[in-house]
Amino acid sequence: MAIELLMPALSPTMEEGTLAKWLVKEGDTVTSGDVIAEIETDKATMEFEAVDEGVIGKITVAEGTEGVKVNAQIAILLEEGEDASAMANVGASAPAAAAAPAEAPAPEAAATEVAAPAPSAPVASTGERVFASPLARRIAAQKGLDLTTIAGSGPKGRIVKADVENATAAPAVEAPKAAASVAASAPAAPQGASADMVAKMYEGRVYEEVKLDGMRKVIAARLSEAKQTIPHFYLRRDIKLDALLKFRSQLNKQLEARGVKLSVNDFIIKAVANALQQVPEANAVWAGDRVLQMKSSDVAVAVAIEGGLFTPVLEDADMKSLSALSTQMKDMAKRARERKLAPQEYQGGSFAISNLGMFGIDNFDAIVNPPHAGILAVGAGKKQPVVGEDGELTVATVMSVTMSVDHRVIDGAVGANLLNAIVENLENPVAMLA
Q: Model confidence over 143-189: pLDDT tens digits?
């Protein structure tokens, strides 16, 4: 049976992508695990691997096509012994594509009935998409198997033909109807003015229309959702940096031979990671109807790139040395700017850091990135007059920070304890490393 190759969902937020490049052509033989195409998601360019073996019978989406919807057909794979006639029974739905080559519509009289496409990808109870080959989905549907209960043996855990053939038949679990009714009754989010309405406001004015790419669309959607659904509250503190700057200078002299240069941001990452261990109830994420209490400190750090941003996640940051964090952060920031981060490198984490101090910003309020429980907005360190412990007026380097918190996860007192722990760690950096 000929197999449809469908546009994969290469990240949880991906709804469509650009088929950047085909690495095979019609007539080529492929095996499971072969890289056959490069696909641009909203975040990066990813490799698409074949799951089944066979011959590329037809490429139905040309390279360079934008806006290809997830699960849209992009090619047809012929199994061993099949010829081109096998493709006649394969469903071929044209993907919605913004940059697809224009073709003349076929006359209605020439239209032929096609087979139904493979069942859509199932979703596990955790909300994550279950990855399975089109053939595996068809066989599962025929046998009455619930794919969410089957462990995949294919690349990256994808369910393949052998997995469903060896599985015991069981009725698929019916999705709860209550959730659907709740979703149906939920009020629609308020919408802004349409593009046409805004354009009319600026009739007669000169402007350039900039098309939104996938990343900008995702940023707009996620941050709009965050501000509409997350009950934010904000906590602010000033932090004296003089002891940290002196300690950093000493360490950098010692690390110079190893080519390591610590930044203030490296200390902030370490301070946040340690604070999440010191206040473990704040090291949590929102999961819809529950809170997930995390054990390790996985800290996300915002990295600005052209046209958007990434938040690479430094896993187990509390267990790593400052030099290790510095090296890893520099590597991830470099690959983020080149859009070469893998999805697992910018997904997850329980808390984020956004630092605009290098741009001279004194302070700002950041938006919590769901499902994180909070984000620390860091301003510039500047010399200011302060009153010392002895009551004398002196000058100190002071940095202002604002912590935005999801009140569903963290209450005020817990948030205050977390921010106080961060401040204590930064103002006493030697103790932080003990």
A: 778 877 787 766 556 687 777 777 765 444 444 444 444 444 445 55
Place of tokens 């999705």: 175
Q: Assess whether pLDDT exceeds 90 at residue 382.
A: yes
pLDDT for 194-251, tens place per residue? 888 998 899 999 999 998 887 888 888 889 989 999 999 999 999 999 999 999 999 9
Beta bridge partners of 239: 399
Reduce the DSSP state of residue 243 to 3 states and report it.
Answer: helix
Q: Distance between CA 432 and CA 335 in Å, rounded?
A: 29
Q: With 0-12 CB in 10 A as exposed, 13-18 as middle and 19+ as buried, what is 232? A: middle
Q: Residue 174 burial (CB < 10 Å; 0-12/13-18/19+)?
A: exposed
Residue 407 known to be catalytic = yes
User: Tokens representing 66?
Assistant: 């934008």
pLDDT score of 176: 45
pLDDT above 90 (res 130) = no
Q: Taking the mean position of all CA atoms in its chain, how far away is CA 2? A: 33
* Token pair for 124: 């596990």
Structure token pair of residue 148: 């969410």
Calculate the alpha carbon distances from 365 to 216, 271, 391 in Å: 20, 19, 31
pLDDT for residue 178: 45
Secondary structure (DSSP) of 400-416: EEEEEEETTT--HHHHH
Residues 6+ apart with CB under 8 A from 61: 7, 19, 68, 72, 73, 74, 75, 95, 97, 100
Q: Which of 407, 416, 417, 424 is catalytic?
A: 407
Give the residue from 367, 350, 203 showing the smallest Cα distance to 284: 350
Angstrom distances, CA of residue 193 to CA of 180, 200, 201, 217: 29, 11, 11, 16
Residue 397 above 60 pLDDT?
A: yes
Q: Please state, in angstroms and rounded to a whole number, the distance separating the CA atoms of residues 155 and 65.
A: 25
CA distance 413 to 394: 31
